[in-house]
């Protein structure tokens, strides 16, 4: 898989990562640390046609522990989230998001010029300090969100990809989907 974990950054008590998490969905995750552990700030799920996120390119972060930008490139499109944790807001795809009201945002048609906001919701933001895969941990908490991710679909056949790479990608998505299901 070209990119199972495109970015993982831990600085000044902040963690940010982005990655494809199923054959049709990619995620952008941002959290911060407190004395009690890790706390989710925002998880954005971007769903499109199977394989839409290729190529997934390394993402980056700029900012401080309380404000900044997280960006990820999927399918040739760069998605940027501007955070201000002091005011409790984020800005994504021309939308202001109150982080006091929602910490999980679902978008469909991410592979089109105008992704559609499907839902915003609040999930328990607390994560243990030693959680290695916070995205699957958070999705496992909500069967409805797991259904949104579309683990049942397959990647399109790409004749330019070696059979061993195709198999590895299928195995990675099967593992991630099993974790999200709680298996």
Can you lay out the helices and strands and say which pair or pack?
Elements: E1 7-11, E2 14-20, E3 25-34, E4 37-47, E5 56-63, E6 67-74, E7 77-84, E8 89-92, E9 95-98, E10 104-108, E11 116-121, E12 126-127, H1 134-140, H2 143-149, H3 163-181
Parallel strand pairs: 4-10
Antiparallel strand pairs: 1-2, 2-3, 3-4, 4-12, 5-6, 6-7, 7-8, 8-9, 10-11
List keywords for this structure.
single chain, 183 residues, alpha+beta, 7-stranded mixed β-sheet, 5-stranded antiparallel β-sheet, 12 strands
Order of helices and strands: EEEEEEEEEEEEHHH
Helical run tally: 3
Task: Specify the helix fraction band.
Answer: 10-25%
Shape: globular
Number of domains: 1
- Which residue ranges are poorly predicted, with pLDDT under 50 across at least 5 consecutive positions? 1-12
Q: What separation lies between the terminal Cα atoms?
A: 22 Å
Radius of gyration: 16 Å
Largest sheet: 7 strands, mixed
Fraction in beta strands? 35-45%
Beta-strand segment tally: 12
Query: What structural class do helix, strand and pairing data support?
Result: alpha+beta
What does the average pLDDT come to? 87
């Amino acid at each position: 898989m070209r990119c199972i974990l495109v970015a993982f950054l831990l600085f000044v008590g902040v963690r940010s990562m982005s990655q494809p998490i199923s054959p049709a969905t990619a995620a952008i995750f941002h959290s911060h640390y407190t004395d009690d552990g890790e706390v989710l700030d925002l998880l954005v799920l971007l769903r499109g046609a199977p394989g839409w996120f290729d190529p997934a390119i390394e993402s980056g972060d700029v900012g401080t522990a309380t404000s900044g930008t997280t960006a990820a490139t999927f399918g040739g499109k760069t998605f940027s989230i501007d955070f201000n944790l002091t005011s409790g807001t984020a800005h994504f795809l021309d939308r202001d998001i109150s982080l006091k009201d929602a910490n999980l945002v679902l978008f469909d048609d991410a592979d089109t010029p105008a992704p559609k906001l499907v839902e915003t919701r609040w999930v328990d933001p607390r994560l243990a300090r030693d959680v290695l895969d916070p995205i699957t941990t958070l999705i496992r908490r909500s069967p409805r969100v797991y259904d949104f991710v579309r683990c049942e679909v397959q990647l399109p056949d790409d004749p330019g990809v070696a059979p061993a790479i195709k198999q590895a990608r299928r195995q990675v998505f099967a593992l991630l989907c099993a974790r999200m299901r709680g298996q």
